[in-house]
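Deliverable D5.2: sample structural annotation.
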Amino acid sequence: GAVLTMTANGTYTFTATVAGTYTYTVPVCAPGQTTNCPTTTIVFTVPVNTLINDTATAYVNIPKTGNVSTNDIVPAGTTYGSPVADPTNPAAGSGGASSGAVLTMTANGTYTFTATVAGTYTYTIPVCAPGQTTNCPTTTIVFKVPVNTLINDTATAYVNIPKTGNVSTNDIVPACTTYGSPVADPTNPAAGSGGASSVAVLTMTANGTYTFTATVAGTYIYTIPVCAPGQSIYCPTSIIVFTVIDTTSKPVIPPLVTKVLDVTKVAGSAILNLDGTFDLTFTIKAYNLTKNFIDSVLLKDDLTKVFDNTTGIKVVSITSSGGLIKNSNYDGISNTDLLTIASSLDSSKVDSVLLRINIPSTISGNFQNTVIGSVPTSNGILTVVSTDPTRILSVSDTVRKPTLFVIPKIPLNIPEGFSPNNDGIDDTWIIRRPIGTKVSVWVINRWGNEVYKNMNYNNDWRGKGIGNILGEDLPEGTYYYIVHGTDLNGKLQKLAGSLTIKR
């Protein structure tokens, strides 16, 4: 386990490859003496050098401090060298590996880490014994910086009626994130000479729940700081917009561009599915503004005028009420009639159509849409363009308003673990991704051994190993992954982190 070389004048060189205690007896001969020389003893103690890898959680733009030596067993005088970033670390813009973060390390193992981009960062650190400068053993530290995705909110309120809700419901934020005091937009309605929003009060709790009360109808916009744990400055922000309707005055009804028929269309929220697509629900209402029966009512909704590319858009369901009869062949593209020609409206009747469509994850952004209604009259076919009643704030507003809706863009989303115990809940590792994204995965255990690999992953891994553990259930515990996602445009996204298997 060691080599000791000795010169005649007593100088020596000792090299050990194994920790422990080494004892040597050295003969010391007087001039001319070659036998029965007296001896001296030298004992070398080589301490155990045990390095344990580290993990830590940090948050965007918040320095994280710590010490990687705390759980190591090393001899006194050991020094920790400059960390080397893993090439899979997140990068900002066109920068190199880890340009999204900075890790500074002192010789005694203390560090400061600051990230500007969410993701998983891995660093290798040389650990040199006293006097050692080359071939030093290494330890690893992995920082996980959670994604902080904030989605703006909208809500409808009524004058003098408190409106409650929670802005955190559709956000993806780290645990213990706090929502700060809302800041009113200067364009908000104001009473008399008061400042912005002096006619409304919005109170916000740290967990995102709120109570909003307004005394004047209008649109109110607030900006809310959203701070990660420990963060107090430079927090990202979310926006909430309240549309306040005054029900104490004359009811607001859709503008009457005709005294025969009116049509309204209101959009519901976009609901995210597990496969990365969104479901959108629209409520379309047809108003008979006469005392007479109307037959041959038609409603046309052309999705090709809404989306530049309609590939992948599907009609999930269409239902109708009253005398309105749905067109089962409606697809919004080649067949744009929501109703059949046999549809009708009774005297002063309001009937509706509920339309639900599925949007692929390749489509995102802000969109607007209208429905064209038509009925026969004695003067010919009368047509009317739908309006969105939620955007009308007064009876004097006679401008037709198209229906506005938003489809958010979703990133590659990787869960922190799963439980392949065949109970029907989280039995496979589900990586949520936009449609058409090809995903490659590598999973390793804490000793760096590859336990799973799939170059075209389809969310079907049930925690079974490969290689020398082929087909066997991997034990519970923490593993590490590298995920590459390539979208339809060939853009590559690299993510790495840890996942927990729990059975």
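Annotation notes: The chain has a mean pLDDT of 86. The first strand starts at residue 2 and ends at 6.
The annotation will be released with the project's public dataset once the embargo ends.
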